[in-house]
Specification:
Low-confidence stretches: 418-429, 471-479
Strand content: 5-15%
Number of helices: 10
Distance between the termini: 25 Å
Structural class: alpha+beta
Number of strands: 7
Mean pLDDT: 83
Length: 479
């Protein structure tokens, strides 16, 4: 017949307690060594990342210096080219003005010695203009000397016709050109007005007036040519300044764009560095995390395994998405969880070892009482053992944990003193109880475990009834 389960709460002897404490200390020491190894690995990986970051910064600095040097060189080359163009343009303008002075000098009627001196000065200035030297006011000074010498020659050559003189002056004005007319409109009008007045004095009786006006006309023509040339040069310089301003604006825009790109690159570098740190730190603990989750399942703590797996996913998901801050926060939480989980697993493992030791002790004791061992399994944190007596009676034994207590739970079938329903005046299990008490005594004698009073539903007890295990919730007790 089958009866109610019988159970006993098992404690350990002082010797076994010391042995278990030593195991606990060994596991704690192993955890500390493992955590120290992880810390060293994290430090090594952090140092490697720091070296790589320093190398990247050094390469970026060198690249920035190279770009800056190239920019400075381009600016210097452009400024030099600009200065060279300005010198060439000025040299071209000086050459044209010197050509005008040469034409003036060619029309001067004066002693050869004086003309030769002016020609030598003209040649010298033309040579300097060919080398793009700054001639300053030397051209206008030479022009004035030529005009003065020409006036003196005209005074000595009174036979020259007024018409030919007027024609030469008008030709000079025309040679100055249309561009000069646009650049010095007031000077051009002055030249035209003075030529008109000079033409009015070219008639009979106007010799004196003609000679007096002639110098003024020649001076106006020279001034018009010089003013037009200077304004042309100013226009060239203004255009160059505008081009330079446009180039500078382009450079400033390019620099702003480069700064924006540099800022974006710096942000990408920062995010990449955080992601790399999170990935490295995960790499340090990933294997331990997986082993801890698997061990939690083996030791019948699925809730802990689920928490570990969720914490791991909380790291891998943002890592895959590139969410650097979330990944770093999650990996720190995972590291903290792992420390506590490993401590919890060590306690579960110690409890499992205790159950295994108790199972071996029980098996030895049962065999000593003539039982046959028919099998056993480890199921959800409990050890299930089956024994059989020669009479055919079966004893299914469960070794489990109730809080901090280890519990032996027996389900007996086939013993004649085990009844289906307990007697209200007290259940009769004397022979079965005696048998199990002898098994418990054997356990105490040999293996360091101390089973408590054997109890079952309905058993009378002289003292306070023992606390039933969770599996026996709802049992009633009698005294």
């Amino acid at each position: 017949m089958s009866g109610s389960p019988k159970y006993s709460t098992v404690t350990v002897s002082p010797a076994y307690a010391r042995q278990e404490a030593e195991r606990r200390r060994a596991r704690e020491a192993a955890r500390r060594r493992q955590e120290a190894q992880r810390a060293r690995e994290r430090a090594e990986r952090a140092a490697r990342r720091a070296r790589e970051a320093a190398a990247r910064r050094e390469r970026a600095r060198a690249e920035a210096e190279r770009r800056e040097a190239e920019l400075v060189a381009r600016r210097a080359a452009r400024q030099e080219a600009q200065a060279a163009r300005a010198r060439q343009e000025q040299a071209g303008a000086d050459t044209r003005r010197l050509a005008e002075v040469g034409e003036l000098l060619g029309g001067v009627h004066a002693p050869d010695s004086e003309v030769r001196l002016l020609q030598q000065e003209l040649d010298r200035l033309q040579h300097r203009a060919g080398r793009a030297e700054d001639l300053g006011g030397a051209i206008e000074e030479l022009r004035g000397r030529v005009v003065l010498l020409g006036r003196e020659g005209a005074d000595g050559d009174r036979g020259a016709g007024h018409g030919s003189v007027l024609a030469g002056l008008e030709e000079r004005l025309a040679r100055i050109g249309q561009q000069a007319r646009e650049q010095d409109q007031q000077g051009y009008r002055t030249c035209v007005e003075l030529l008109g007045e000079l033409r009015a004095t070219s008639g009979p009786g106007g010799e004196t007036r003609f000679r007096a006006m002639l110098g003024a006309v020649e001076h106006a023509l020279a001034r018009h040519a010089a003013t037009a040339g200077e304004r042309a040069a100013q226009e060239v310089r203004r255009a160059e300044r505008e081009r330079e301003a446009a180039r500078r604006a382009e450079e400033a825009a390019a620099e702003r764009e480069a700064e924006r790109q540099a800022a974006e690159e710096a942000e990408r570098e920062r995010v990449a560095a955080v992601l790399a740190e999170a990935a490295d730190r995960l790499g340090v603990v990933r294997q331990s995390v997986r082993e801890a989750a698997a061990e939690a399942l083996e030791l019948a703590d699925p809730e802990l395994a689920e928490r570990i797996e969720a914490a791991l996913a909380a790291v891998t998901d943002p890592l895959a998405a590139g969410a650097a801050a979330d990944a770093l926060t999650a990996v720190a939480a995972l590291e903290e969880l792992l420390v506590g989980a490993e401590a919890r697993l060590d306690e579960l493992q110690l409890a499992h070892t205790r159950r295994m030791d108790l199972a071996q002790a029980l098996q030895d004791a049962m065999l000593g009482e003539g039982f046959s061992f028919t099998g056993g399994t480890d199921q959800e944190g409990r050890l299930l053992l089956s024994f059989e007596r020669p009479s055919g009676a079966t004893y299914r034994t469960t070794i489990g944990t109730d809080g901090e207590d280890t519990v032996l739970l027996y389900q007996v079938d086939g013993e004649p003193d085990v009844v289906l329903r307990p007697d209200p005046d007290g259940a009769a299990c004397d022979r079965t109880e005696d048998l199990l008490e002898r098994v418990h005594d054997a356990i105490v004698d040999r293996d360091g475990f101390v089973p408590g009073e054997l109890a079952w539903e309905g058993k009378r007890s002289a003292g306070p009834p023992p606390k039933p295990p969770a599996a026996a919730k709802g049992w009633t007790w009698t005294r």
